[in-house]
Specification:
GO terms for molecular function: GTP binding; GTPase activity; microtubule binding. It catalyses: GTP + H2O = GDP + phosphate + H(+). It is found in: Cytoplasm, Cytoskeleton, Phragmoplast. Belongs to the TRAFAC class dynamin-like GTPase superfamily. Dynamin/Fzo/YdjA family. There is one protein chain. By secondary structure, the chain is α/β, with parallel strands linked by helices. Helix content is about 60%, strand content about 10%. It contains 22 helices and nine strands. Strand 7, helix 5 and strand 8 form a beta-alpha-beta unit. Helix 15 packs antiparallel against helix 16. The longest helix is centred in the middle third of the chain and has 41 residues. The termini are close together. Bound molecules: guanosine-5'-triphosphate (GTP). Guanosine-5'-triphosphate binds next to helix 2 and helix 7.
């Protein structure tokens, strides 16, 4: 099994990677966070509760900034690593990886400077942690996170909002189920009013992950003691309370050495009539060991969950990155290539719609099979070939002398008039197919996943395809109308040659001559013209679809974006870049996901390396 050092060290390394790669937790769903999944010990306490003193005594060194007002304004991740006895103590910051601090007053200055570097003169707080590692033979392996102290009032020079901001930041840590809360309370204050205990009770009601620390035991009024608290009767926690005696202000002023202070603390408990029986479980050294052991066991228990969380998140991030697509290339050649690839992807989907791989093509057939025949049937030939109109047109064509045999001119005029009606359905078919094609372009753009990232290119493709379809429509109209005109230019002679013979079959010549100007005569003309027009209608029902497919559908399949390709080929580098100007939010998201993925992968490598070194 991995050793204690390697487990706490492992989490330290992952925490450092989190900070380097921008995972400070608290993202609230925007990005997965590993930071919050890692077990950590967080120090919480009210103002002047003795928080800094406890941390310094655990380390055995003076190194935290002091001063009035809210001094701690960024989380301090304090990573303690035990080294072999005799080796020199030193400190290192994550943000200054090459620099070893052996003078701990310089550490204090650096914490201050680094705090200001992010929060500036404004004295605001920031959630970006400072990582400090201390290597010393006098520490146990332990990581503690020091947060700004809970406070009720901002002092001069600090914004009013800071009180609330601190509470929000502290809460964001202690709320997480992986957080071990080190709740500091001064013994000379009523436990019921302790800020840290109030907060801990709220977020950890069962007290499973709260360690109560009672400071300032030496400052209690004579004749009182804290036995009821320390033995868990005043406020019950799952873990035993630990009492502490830190250096007093006077000791600090006198520069009392921390190692000496630790010895004094041991003596205090050993010789105390009140706490003597608890002496083995009191003091800052004991607290450090207790926490180290607990943190190690929590990490050990959590590793399998963390590993599966890491693997799951890597899958999710990779899936999202795939969905977002690769970043756009920087040089013009690659950009042109990308644009053409994207156009082809669109074109493929568009063709699939026409060829039956996707719905849409059948709607065009619907026009030819239903709408066109229905429109042809509805043409007002009954009115045009009514007895009255036939008589009128024939008589007008005859002029001053009525026709002798067949009313040649009358026939022609009636037929011309009728054929004119075919222009409507011919144009309507072209338009209907045009709109279907246009709609399929819109649909295909929406269905081209690769294009999703590029709103500008989408607009351009749509415009280019729209223009092309417009040209095909023009051509479709010209061609179908020409079919109609051709019918008028030259009539099918055979049809009329057959007519007199059929008429003669019905009776003798004399009878025919007799009813030349009767209603029957005009009715027969009407019916002859009607069957001729019916024959033409049958022809156009077949040839209009051929023209429409030839001019519009086939062209759309063959050359929808040809014109666009030529234009794109002539574009300058910056114009190409403009076509590929991705949605900035999407670019940002890709960057974030890439960094987060890097974090999770490095965490996975760290965990793997520990498992190997068993
Ligand atoms: N006598 C005695 N004094 C203590 C003890 N713990 C802390 N003090 C003193 O209490 C004062 C505040 O201690 P700090 O450790 O600075 O407390 P803090 O919670 O970090 O304070 P802020 O960060 O300023 O809110 C200092 O003067 C310490 O010397 C203790 O156990 N005994």
């Amino acid at each position: 099994m991995a050793t204690m050092e390697s487990l706490i060290g492992l989490v330290n390394r992952i925490q450092r990677a989190c900070t380097v790669l921008g995972d400070h937790g608290g993202d609230h769903g925007a990005l997965p966070t590993l930071w919050e999944a890692l077990p950590s010990v967080v120090v919480v306490g009210g103002q002047s509760s003795g928080k800094s003193s406890v941390l310094e005594s655990i380390v055995g060194r003076d190194f935290l900034p002091r001063g009035s007002g809210i001094v701690t304004r960024r989380p301090l991740v304090l990573q303690l690593q035990k080294t072999e006895s005799g080796l020199q103590e030193y400190a290192e910051f994550l943000h200054l990886p090459k620099k070893r601090f052996t003078d701990f007053s310089m550490v204090r200055n650096e914490i201050q400077d680094e705090t200001d570097r992010l929060t500036g003169k404004s004295k605001q707080i920031s959630p970006v942690p400072i990582h400090l590692s201390i290597y010393s033979p006098n520490v146990v392996n332990l990581t503690l996170i020091d947060l700004p102290g809970l406070t009720k009032v901002a002092v001069e020079g600090q914004p009013e909002s800071i009180v609330r901001d601190i509470e929000i930041m502290v809460r964001s840590y202690v709320e997480k189920p992986n957080c071990i809360i080190l709740a500091i309370t001064p013994a000379n204050q009523d436990i019921a009013t302790s800020d840290s205990i109030k907060l801990a009770r709220e977020v950890d009601p069962s007290g499973e992950r709260t360690f109560g620390v009672l400071t300032k035991l030496d400052l209690m009024d004579k004749g009182t003691n804290a036995i009821d608290v320390l033995e868990g009767r005043s406020y019950r926690l799952q873990h035993p309370w630990v009492g502490i005696v830190n250096r007093s202000q006077a000791d600090i002023n006198k520069n009392v050495d921390m190692i000496f202070a630790r010895r004094k603390e041991r003596e205090f408990f050993a010789t105390s009539p009140d706490y003597g029986h608890l002496a083995g479980k009191m003091g800052s050294e004991y607290l450090a060991k207790l926490l180290s052991k607990h943190l190690e066991s929590v990490i050990r228990a959590r590793i399998p969950d963390i590993t599966s969380l890491i693997n799951k998140t890597i899958d999710e991030l990779e899936a999202e990155l795939n969905h977002l697509g690769r970043p756009v290339a920087a040089d013009a050649g690659a950009q042109l290539y990308t644009i053409l690839e994207l156009c082809r992807a669109f074109d493929r989907i568009f063709k699939e719609h026409l060829e039956g791989g996707r719905p849409g093509g059948a709607r065009i057939y619907g026009i030819f099979d239903n709408q066109l025949p229905a429109a042809l049937r509805k043409l007002p030939f009954d009115r045009h070939l009514s007895l009255q109109n036939v008589k009128k047109v024939v008589s007008e064509a005859d002029g001053y002398q009525p026709h002798l045999i067949a009313p040649e001119q009358g026939y022609r005029r009636l037929i011309d008039g009728a054929l004119n009606y075919f222009r409507g359905p011919a144009e309507a078919s072209v338009d209907a197919v045009h709109y279907i094609l246009k709609d399929l372009v819109r649909k295909s753009i929406g269905e081209t996943q690769e294009l999703k990232r590029f709103p500008t290119l989408q607009v351009e493709i749509r415009a280019a395809a729209g223009e092309a379809l417009e040209r095909f429509r023009e051509d479709g109209k010209k061609t179908t109308l020409r079919l109609v005109d051709m019918e008028s230019s030259y009539l099918t002679v055979d049809f009329f040659r057959r007519l007199p013979q059929e008429a003669e079959k019905g009776g003798n010549q004399a009878a025919n001559a007799a009813d030349r100007y009767t209603e029957g005569h005009y009715r027969r003309i009407g019916s002859n013209v009607s069957s001729y027009v019916g024959m033409v209608s049958e022809t156009l029902r077949n040839t209009i679809p051929k023209a429409v497919v030839h001019c519009q559908v086939r062209e759309a399949k063959r050359s929808l974006l040809d014109h666009f390709y030529t234009q794109v080929g002539k574009k300058e580098a910056n114009q190409l870049a403009q076509l590929l100007d991705e949605d900035p939010a999407q670019m940002e998201r890709r960057q974030q996901c890439t960094r987060r993925l890097e974090l999770y992968k490095s965490a996975r490598d760290e965990i793997d390396s520990v498992s190997w070194s068993r």
